[in-house]
């Protein structure tokens, strides 16, 4: 019998349609209560009457619960660096609302778009999208953020924030690829559709602070993959996720599922995706990025000879989840053992060679049958399982043989490991900011997902399940009609 003193009160709900019991957890002394059916099975109550009773009951849940809703963003783009090499979405800003295409970036915090009279902002895009510039003077709901505004001080968390001579709160961002942008902060309306239970509210809006970029440098000036700006999904106070959560508009969580097929696209939702097989690992506290405690790497089930300190978070070390990075990067001390293990496994099956510093292979059969499975192992005993498609990139072909190269790159002289889109694709990734954890599960991102407005879980180790059978499909997001509970299918409680 498993001791579970933390999980005090257990309500065993006799399900009318499902035989499985649902356990709700409250701190206290262990006890068990048996509840009677409102409608015994012998009464033959019509299904329509049961549905109506459930509808009223669900309505009470919605009234008593948080006003949070779910916001769904359409995703475009692909991870393929030879095609697009980024994922982006569309946001509606200002009055009247204008469309802006912005890159999805979990490695930064602030939403910013190009501003009127911008120096270096591209005017056309190879992505076949129409670019816009935001004009604060053309939106009656726009307000410039002054230096005395408390929100200006919040910008210091996310950027080099400063004040101009005219008391305007400005910012400067420098990105890892050498590109940069600067401008000033403005507040205006963001428009979106929200879903809360059975209610779909169109034309919802909330005031958010975002950046109005007046200067761009580096790759941001190039038109081949140009977008209007960057949508930072970091956890600092000026991220849109944090702003909307603090206003009670959305949960303090978001989820994405980036499709790895040729068509790309995927799902991005402000809310917590729920799937039975999602596993979670804690976020490293007090870090500006989404740092995880990776403890080891396994190839074909064999742990690599890498000192665990290589992955520990410290100055210029650690493991970061970043959707704004196209490939994936390993700390210098981990890269060579990783490549060597792959080489040893495929030594008899393929011809290997080095091209422009990258380890490549000539492959005449399926890579799924030729290359090993890789496991990234994290704190809490959970792993992210990578198929060959999650660490290899196809380059071209030579005499009928496909050329595949390892997509993981080495960061010279640094101890950072960065998990970019190469690894994140074809998975639901959940950023539970309220619970300070990140979860994932392999998934077909062309399918719909279940999303909850709840964050975290009432009990450690439990599985989030929707207790109501009805779901409402908005775009590619299924929103549970009923509430969410913690479910322990094999948990016993001591007296």
From TrEMBL:
Would you identify the family this protein belongs to, as annotated?
A: Belongs to the peptidase A1 family.
Q: What Pfam families does the record tag this protein with?
A: TAXi_C, TAXi_N
Q: What is this protein called?
A: OLC1v1003718C2
Under the heading InterPro entries, the entry gives: Aspartic_peptidase_A1, Pepsin-like_plant, PEPTIDASE_A1, Peptidase_aspartic_dom_sf, TAXi_C, TAXi_N
Q: Which CDD domains match?
A: pepsin_A_like_plant (cd05476)
Q: Where in this chain does the record put each Peptidase A1 domain? A: 87-441
Q: Which UniProt keywords apply?
A: Aspartyl protease, Glycoprotein, Hydrolase, Membrane, Protease, Signal, Transmembrane, Transmembrane helix
Q: Which GO terms describe its cellular component?
A: membrane
Which SUPFAM superfamilies does this entry report, sorted A to Z?
Answer: Acid proteases (SSF50630)
Protein localization: Membrane
